[in-house]
Amino acid sequence: MNDHSDGLLIIDHLHKSYCHDNTETEVLKNVTFRVGQGEIVGVVGPSGCGKSTLLHLVAGFDQDYRGDIAFCGQKITCPATERGMVFQSPQLFSWLKIKDNIAFGPKRQHMAKEDISAQTRIFLERVGMLDFLDYYPEQLSGGMQQRVALARALIMKPKLLLMDEPFSALDYQSRLEMQRLTLKLWEEYKPSILLVTHDIEEALLLADRIIVLSKGPGEIIRELSVNFDRPRDLSLIKSLSFHQLKSQILDQLSVLM
Ligand SMILES: Nc1ncnc2c1ncn2[C@@H]1O[C@H](COP(=O)(O)OP(=O)(O)OP(=O)(O)O)[C@@H](O)[C@H]1O
């Protein structure tokens, strides 16, 4: 078991509103939860309930909120590599080869050239993309690009990985493959993960805990522990206990949303 007691990320009474045409719209309401060291927390909820907004605040893209967001005991004031992000679309730099996309972050951190080259190969190998070093993003499928995006985030050794619907644009089989890869990489690097997803199965497969937000303004209406043993693999999806928990959650969601 991981030690989740410390709260790597602490979100405390978070409120977020957007102002548009002099009208204020509340998007997140009184959101309080923690993500422990090495813990995977899934966030689910209806469209527009503020899931992406929550990730953007934790990423440090926006500091206009009420309440507290603390990471490693410090208020979040800007984006940082220790909080890596994987988006729904891979967002690779189209003008750079795959190896240079991966090397982009380490170069900005002035890592030694030979280390960058070695690390790039290691991370591309981990995501099964070593044969595509010299390709450009447009030459790869969506699933392959998302593998590269995962490697690009992980090479920075983030303590927290923020994943915003990372596999929702992929077909079912590619999505399963990415979920399998995420489980494998998590076993290896154990980053904490805050995962926004529409897919209850994905949240159940990957997460230790699931936070359910209400319709906007998003408020936490349920927090569920997912106690399946680790290491997990895709066979979990076929198990009776998985189906039982999934149908329990779906029942709760259909009442609450
Ligand atoms: N920059 C912005 N300015 C104004 N309103 C915004 C902005 N970003 C998001 N919103 C509004 O905030 C609400 C929450 O949006 P958000 O994208 O966080 O929801 P979500 O739960 O991630 O939705 P989905 O599941 O459809 O991706 C929406 O009503 C959206 O229109």
Automatic annotation (TrEMBL):
Keyword terms: ATP-binding, Nucleotide-binding, Transport
PROSITE patterns attached to this UniProt entry: ABC_TRANSPORTER_1, ABC_TRANSPORTER_2
GO terms, molecular function: ATP binding; ATP hydrolysis activity
Pfam families, per the entry: ABC_tran (PF00005)
Domain of life: Bacteria
Residues in ABC transporter domain copies: 9-240
Protein name: NitT/TauT family transport system ATP-binding protein
